[in-house]
Specification:
The structure is a single chain. The chain contains 16 helices and 13 strands. It is of the alpha/beta class. The chain has two domains: about 180 residues, Glycogen Phosphorylase B (Rossmann fold, 3-Layer(aba) Sandwich); about 150 residues, Rossmann fold. Helix 1 packs across helix 16. It is globular and about 60 Å long. The structure holds uridine-diphosphate-N-acetylglucosamine (UD1) and uridine-5'-diphosphate.
């Protein structure tokens, strides 16, 4: 049984790492195919180094571009590699253009597709990620749903139950495998002059937020208001897409501390010690819930409703008064919720399922 693990962006590298680790442990016949969607050192290589992932056998170097350009380059590049390597199963994780391109190339060549993190839905088809998720789920042979809720979504869409496996989310594996390493290997709090539970952490990069001047400015106004009221530092490791837009729109957030994107151990430490996290990231909503740090989501919806149901997340949208209100609610709430994303053995289950031929 030969496997190919496709990854292209920061969250895919982080969430595939536990699967790769498991394949390594079992000496499996597999290789990594990097699409090159992310290529800046601090969005890409730093994670391979820090998470000790073997080098990709191929890097397609597709780079940035419009959705069609980028997806087309991924599709043709992945197809070439598949024709040459003839793997039995292709694994993708999440909802990026790399995921859709990889899955589509494989299914047309009758190569089985495994989708890690299947069954998530925001029910907002203006999000590129929602289209990628739906299409990838519907051309996959193995659907690795992180939760029972995700499984029920897939069944309701007519996907046969025997293709769906509830595994937990590999982000729990990643957090558990790396949390204890953060203390020894990162001194980011000292470096940024922050005290534990005495700052807010922000990430913001979704296309629908930062590619709209109105939405981006409204969120920044909300964050400014929080800084004013709580008199705490607000740290924002800024994604290059958002950095580009801040310059283009000439936004000038006064009260935020903008820093370059952070490596994984540093970022985990920043999350774990934050008083409150405000984000539009999928992975960060999950991690804050796992770490029991209150989260406010700067979006109109979430494909991670489990975080809200357990009490770890509040969906604020983008209006300053709503960001303020939801932050207050989350800061007042006891953070004793249960992690809904599994026990940290998702990687093991995924590899068991595929290698067991189930
Ligand atoms: C992509 C995913 C998004 C995911 C995010 C993770 C899609 C449709 N979007 O968004 O779901 O949450 O990755 O971070 O697949 N850039 C760099 N260096 C890089 C990569 C990008 O500077 O290494 C800049 C470029 O200006 C580029 C922009 O960021 O145009 C956006 O990159 P892109 O890969 O298109 O989308 P992301 O916003 O990263
Ligand atoms: N992350 C990181 N450094 C940062 C910001 C985020 O290591 O400066 C990690 C974070 O811990 C999470 C993942 O990146 O595991 C989330 O990726 P991102 O927000 O880019 O994408 P999304 O999850 O929204 O698709």
């Amino acid at each position: 049984m030969k496997l190919v693990v496709v990854c292209g962006t920061r969250p895919e590298i982080i969430k595939m790492a536990p699967v790769i680790r498991e394949l390594e442990k079992r000496n499996s016949d597999y290789f990594i195919l990097h699409t090159g969607q992310h290529y800046s050192y601090n969005l890409d290589k730093v994670f391979f180094e820090q998470l000790e992932i073997p080098q990709a056998r191929y890097n397609l170097e597709v780079g940035s571009g419009s959705h069609a350009e980028q997806t087309a380059r991924i599709l043709t590049g992945v197809e070439q590699v598949l024709l040459q390597e003839k793997p039995d199963v292709l694994l993708v994780e999440g909802d990026t253009n790399s995921v859709l391109g990889g899955a589509l190339a494989a299914v047309k060549l009758h190569i089985r597709v495994g989708h890690v993190e299947a069954g998530l839905r925001s029910y907002d088809r203006t999000m590129p990620e929602e289209i990628n998720r739906i299409l990838t789920d519907h051309c996959s042979d193995y659907l690795f749903a992180p939760t029972d809720k995700a499984k029920s979504v897939l069944l309701a869409e007519g996907i046969p139950g025997e293709s769906v496996f509830v595994t937990g989310n590999t982000i729990v594996d990643a957090v558990l495998q790396n949390l204890s390493r953060t203390e020894q290997k990162s001194n980011i709090l000292d470096a940024l002059n922050l005290r534990p539970k005495d700052y807010f952490l922000v990430t913001l990069h979704r296309q629908e937020n930062v590619d709209s001047r109105h939405r981006f400015a409204s969120i920044l106004q909300g964050l400014d208001r929080l800084a004013d009221e709580y008199k705490l530092p607000i740290v924002y490791p800024i994604h290059p897409r958002s950095q580009k837009r801040i310059m283009e729109y000439q936004l000038n957030p006064q009260n935020l501390s903008l820093i370059d994107p952070v490596d994984y151990l540093g970022f985990l430490q920043l999350e774990n010690n934050a008083k409150l996290i405000l984000t539009d990231s999928g992975g960060v909503q999950e991690e804050s819930c796992i770490l029991r740090v209150p989260c406010v989501t700067l979006r109109d919806n979430t494909e991670r409703p489990e975080t809200v149901v357990v009490g770890g997340n509040s969906i604020a949208g983008i209006k300053p008064e709503d960001i303020h209100r939801c932050s207050k609610i989350m800061l007042d709430r006891a953070n004793n919720w249960q992690n809904p994303f599994g026990d940290g053995k998702a990687g093991e289950r995924i590899v068991d399922t595929i290698l067991g031929g189930k």
